[in-house]
Structure formats: structure tokens, C-alpha cells
Amino acid sequence: MTYQQTAKWLVMAAALAVPSLAFAHSEAEELQEITAFFAGAQLVEAPKIVDCTLSAGTKTRCFSVTVKAEPTSYAPGPWCPTNIADGADKAGIWLDGGKVFAADGAFMEKLAEFYEDKGWSVFDPETGKINVTDSLEACLAAARPDVDPKYNNYCVQCLPEYIAEDVTQTYVIPIDPQPLIIGRDIRFIGSGIAANGVRLDAPAPVDAILGAHTIAPFDKCGGHVNPHEGYHYHAVTDCLETPVGAEPQQIGIAMDGYAILTHLLADGTAPEGLDRCNGHEGEGLGYHYHAGEVGANAILGCLSAEFGCHSDDPTAVCDASAPPPRP
């Protein structure tokens, strides 16, 4: 077992609150620990060990897990308020400039002032009613990069009921990380997978959203819905993070196999010496990541090692070295 593999499983062992820091010495033991880590996820197919080809062409062994991207510990939402009188309890959050804002009625009312752009007008000035997408068709037309013009000045939300029953996501992630000299972009592959089976995504394309005078809030857990992929996170909030001073600290596994820990350390302090990918070497833990601040719209900055595959086809063989799909 390599140093990187040993370090990764030491982190996972701590995350699972294992009494000793013993780590797996065989694929069977590794599989047992991975399965335990995803105990809170909606598994469609339990974790298994498979052959895989990573992003830089390394052929190795990965774990594969197929999930439904639906958290079991809470119901996603809400997202858009329906009236400018609605409070934060009827709305989600918005991330801008490193800060988190309640996307409530008052925020929607002042979008023109907030963005210093008189083109914003998402509500009826007489009734206070906010323009909100209210169907799958409207969601698909407004949430795409080239927003349908008729949905300009809308609050965009896609509801969980728009996700087809058979939509699943399969993650194929290296057991033994293969470090890179330069971190890799995560726009097409995402950051990783949370312990609850929900995708930890790349930054949301906020500029494209705002360019059409649309706004697509996240719920208070930092997530929203893509009907084709399911519910996913663009930020890690306290829905995934553990209380200060408590264990576990690991909230997910990155697409390159390294552990993703909470933004803050167990004592409530910020980690030091993070690289541009949000990773560093921790005492006794080896290399691992810390999730970015909630307002940053970036769970990870990049991936420090070769990544595996993420697909809606559970039968696909992972070859992450193939060219990424066109945006």
C-alpha cells in the first residue's frame, strides 16, 4: 500500500470514528470501509472494486458506487420565494462575492440595487408576486446556459419531483490517488461525492445565470436540482459539516480519491497552508482537502491527482482519459 493510500484511509478511519487507526490491507477490507462511509446514501448498487483508467491515463483499481442523488436526512428546498413579503423561511440562499445572502423576498425586491442594474425586475410592483419557474418545461428553459428569453427576470427553481425515478449517478474513484504536478480543472467532473451520496459539484455558472437577469438560489444546504443529474451541492454548509469539536470531520471523497474534510478544523479554526485546490498535508493525515467557505461557490479549487469518472450510465467502463464532452 502506498503512502497516499495509507494517508487516505487514515482520514476515512477517523471519519468513521473507528476505535483504532487500523486501515485496510486488502480490497475486501477497503470495500468494507467504503461501504460503511456511504451508509447514509441511497445506494442503487453497493460499492465494488473495478478496473479503471484515470484522467492522465493511469490504469489502476477504483471503487464504483451507484446512488440516487437524494439526501435522506432532510428534504431539499426551499429555493425561490413567491412574493417580496416572504421571509427567509420561504427561500434559499444566494452566494456572491464570497458572502452568503438570504434569497428572500426583500433580496429579490432589491436585485436592481444589489447589482446596480436597472434591468432587474423579477416581481410585479403592484402585487409583489415574484416570477418563479413552476414547471419542468420552465425549469429546463430557464436553467440552461442560453436562457430562453421569455424567462428573463425569473427566479429559477427546479423541484425534486422533476427528477425521473430512474435517474442515478455512478462514481468511479481511485482507491490509491495518483498525484499530479499541476491541479486539474473540475468543471466537467465536479469535486466529488458526499457521504450521503449527493454530488459535490464544480462552481455554479453564476455569470451565465445573472447575464439573463435570472437568479437560481441554492437551498440552505447549498444544493439545487438538475433534472438530468438530480440534487447536488455547490457549497458545503452545516447540513454536511459536523459541530465544532465533534467527529467525524470527513464529509466526502474527491474524484481523485483524496478525502474532503469540513471547511474548519475540529477546534473551529481555519486550516493553514491550503494550496489552490484547497488541499494540504495534515499531521498524521497525509494530503486531503477542506471544503471552501460557503460563500465562495467553490467546494474545491481543482483536483491535485488524476480523477476517475462520474456518469449516469452504471454500465459504463471508466476511462477518464477520454476527451471531456463539449459544454
Describe this structure in words.
The chain is of the alpha+beta class and 327 residues long. Helix content is 14%, strand content 25%. The protein contains six helices and 18 strands. It has helices at 3-15, 27-37, 105-109, 111-114, 136-143, 206-211; strands spanning 42-53, 59-68, 93-96, 99-102, 154-155, 169-174, 179-184, 192-194, 199-200, 214-215, 223-226, 230-233, 250-254, 259-261, 279-282, 286-290, 303-305, 309-311. An eight-stranded mixed sheet has the order 11-12-9-8-13-14-16-15. Strands 1-2-6-18 form a four-stranded antiparallel sheet, with helices on one face. The chain has a two-stranded antiparallel ribbon with strand order 3-4. A hairpin with a 4-residue loop joins strand 8 and strand 9 (199-200). Helix 1 (3-15) runs parallel beside helix 2. The relative contact order is 0.19. Residues 1-24 have low confidence and may be disordered.
